[in-house]
Amino acid sequence: MAAAALFSASAAGIADSGTLATPMYLRGGFNGWGLDHPLAYKGNGVYEAEVLASPGYHGFKVGSKDWSAEWVIDPSASVTVSAGTSYKMQAKAGPEDYLLIKKTSIWRFSVDASDPAAPLLRVTQTGMPPASTDDPHQGHALSVAIKYGSDTVRFSTPDTGAILRSYTQSTTMPLRDPGPPSTTYREAADRPTVRSGSLAFDALFALALDEMKQNAVAQIKDGNYNGANAIDCDCFETGEKWHYVWTRDLSYAADLGLAMLDPERVRNSLDFKLSGYRPGIARVPQVAGSADGLQIIQDTGSGGSWPVSTDRVAWVLGAEAALNHLPPAQRARFAARALEALVNTLENDRIAAFDAASGLYMGEQSFLDWRDQSYAAWIVGDLASLASSKALSTNVLHYKALTLAASLAHDSGDLARSAKYAGWAAALKRSINQRLWLEDAGMYSSLTAPHFDGAPTHKFDWLGQALAIVTGVADGERARRILASYPHGPMGAPVIYPQQQGMPVYHNRAIWPFVTAYGLKAASLHANVSVADAAYDTLMRGAALNLSNMENLEWISGQPLLLDEQQPALIGPVINSKRQLWSVGGYLGMVIGNVFGVGVTGSGMEVRPFITAKLRREVFGAASAITLDNLSVRGKRITVRIALPDATNETGYYPLKTITLNGAATAQSIAWDQLPDNATIDIALGPLQQGDQRIRRVDAASCAEGPDVFGPREPSIAKEATAATLRIDANGNGAGTVYNVYRDGKLVAAGVAAGEWRDRAPPAAACYAIEAQFSVSGNRSHHSVPRCTGVAVEVPAMVDGVAQPHVKDWGKPGERLRFGAVRIAQAGEYGAQVRYHNGANQINLGISGGVKWLVLKDASGRIAAQGVVQLPHARTGKTGVLSTPLRTRLKPGLYALEMSDFYNMSYLQSNSTFSAAGGAEGPSNKFDVYGARLLHLK
């Protein structure tokens, strides 16, 4: 948008009456990129917004409500602003600018727009928030203090004997967001309560329930949808800073705990994340499923969303949990809708994202969707390579989706479909265990290298490992090895390992409570006492110190923000929110599902508490029993009481000894028809058992990038690689680093030095990749960009029979594009790729990733290969970048390529109000085409 177009006619000059034709807002990390800081007109063309901001390295932009207009300093690069300096802004989209704030303070952002073509930004500190001297605990009947390092958390209640207590909680730790260092919350008659002898434990459970209640809303909104106006929905919003429903956040939160406590709202939220096609969308023959296309929504994200990202199937975790908790009539209706959505999702994922050669699904790691945080540095310039990699977490989620679909199909009487999905699930489980298990590490690889390499990398994530355990993908022995092998820092398990150099805290160098909660579930299943104790500590400490269940924490210090004034670009967590939905769900699940052991299946309730000696000794202290009261499950009111053994200084856990239901002995599994409307379950624990106490612990300074906890930078292969000789570029890795060589995804040389390496038995065509490895710790890098030595034949695009070097804005529904004929001289395996540029949105945003159907035909017109190719959003290149490949074996002869439509997330009705490409103006599956190539692979 031109700068002047932002202004009304009266505002083109400097008249005091001038106003912006398009209201603009200060949006950044300090306000969740929201709309609560509009630029207010102050006269003479000057607009201002003031924000109370906490310490941090805050990204920000000046943008309109729907992001149709943006002001940034430099559209090509981020700028760190200094207080009191004026910066010329441009009315163009671009990367966010940054402000480093060292103490919680008030900042004024002034924009002088008296010259609309050259607005000037000036940022100044204007004050400090007033300090409070009041004691929030004064006059309370009971007050307890808990030390966490140098910080103290205090809990108090005015009436210890009240049936429903009020709690006040304060902390000495600096909070992530501006606000008082204390909070007060109350138990409610319609929510469960805990009495444990520990005021802190009882209070933190009440805090999580209170935050669940705050996240339960009647309307949701996001600046990118519905013109940033509210949408009616009795749903769960995602957190204090995130007022929308996001598929994966909701689904993990529901599975961890929310579905038990509010299944109807979970169902509503899950239903909001389903959508059919927009009216008038012509369905192409290759697309599978029902005519309306009802399916799970993949939210906006990497490269333009699905199928670069394919973890929309996380939805099944929430759906299964909701189905287990809904009363029969509601369950039946939702089960039918869930099955339809699952069938459409699974069938199209099979076409667009399944790699038959490996038996695995392609797509980005679940939730780890900041590419530079958990992928090779070069991947941001080649998102098609991200799209073709295979991730542990996403494949385990597909396994879970297939098993649920098989179960629902069986219940509906569709036995053929049930058998089909059960067979797919069994095959996928085998492929995960065959392709991703790394015996030397005792864990699964989190992700494979991309196409033309495909080797499992020595990169690990806690969510993927835990999901493999809790879903049963990992058998008992592998599950125990994973629990013993995954590294833990002093504050708990980081979400990825090893950490990435030169990256701020977010997914990198971070603890995410919801992931910790899954780790706890996995540890409890296999009685790993040490891992469980670490998880209990992480979850309780994080909620206590922060007065909330935060989105994430720095992994060594456990802080919600770690300042690094010497390297401000590494400060983080970059984004953090209070009452993050899946953190809330994880905490509630910890108490109800792990401590008290209450779980629900389709057939009834299971009781499997996991109380360790440390938890009993340090948390429950002198108490002889703990009680969970007023838990409502399927309309039944349940009380769970656990009699505690005497505390001991030993380590281990207390196995379940006996269970009684309203005084009568019962089994751990209680069928629904055996559970009365008012049930009291009494549990006695047996003698202390040692359990599995293995845990891998690592330690490091918070800002140090040592080889014990970080991986090396990925190396590169010089472009002049031949079939016999590679030149390995260390990419800044120093002494103590060696290099491993992969050929076509297989390790062919280990521990070699940088520089020249010769393949002593080079095939005629092959693809090579290199990884770096620290000699001492064994930590490894991501793989380099693959270098292929086979012949590559470039093929022009054809329009009306004439070769075109550049076809602009191609890809409207119904369009077909042909490429010139190409002669294959040598039989072998080939990869066909389209050379393109997709600038519909930024590489981390949107729903407009290119998803097309590519067909390779021989001279007689017979189809030699066909399938989906992906053309994600890409950074600008003169001749474009390459799509995902269509791989096949070819005989010598003449071949031709043709490309036609498939679909992407912009074809769904739910995205009809999206503000950017693929939204209100209609679906977007278009890009520029620069030709194609056929590459001889082997």
UniProtKB/TrEMBL annotation:
Region Disordered, residue ranges: 171-191
Q: Which residues form the Mannosylglycerate hydrolase MGH1-like glycoside hydrolase domain?
A: 244-541
Chain segments annotated as coiled-coil in the UniProt record: none
Q: Which Gene3D superfamilies match?
A: 1.50.10.10, Immunoglobulins (2.60.40.10)
Q: Which domain of life is it from?
A: Bacteria
List, alphabetically, the SUPFAM superfamilies matched. E set domains (SSF81296), Six-hairpin glycosidases (SSF48208)
**InterPro entries membership:** 6-hairpin_glycosidase_sf, 6hp_glycosidase-like_sf, Ig-like_fold, Ig_E-set, MGH1-like_GH
| One matching Pfam family | MGH1-like_GH
- State what protein this is by name: Esterase
Write the lineage as a comma-separated list: Bacteria, Pseudomonadati, Pseudomonadota, Betaproteobacteria, Burkholderiales
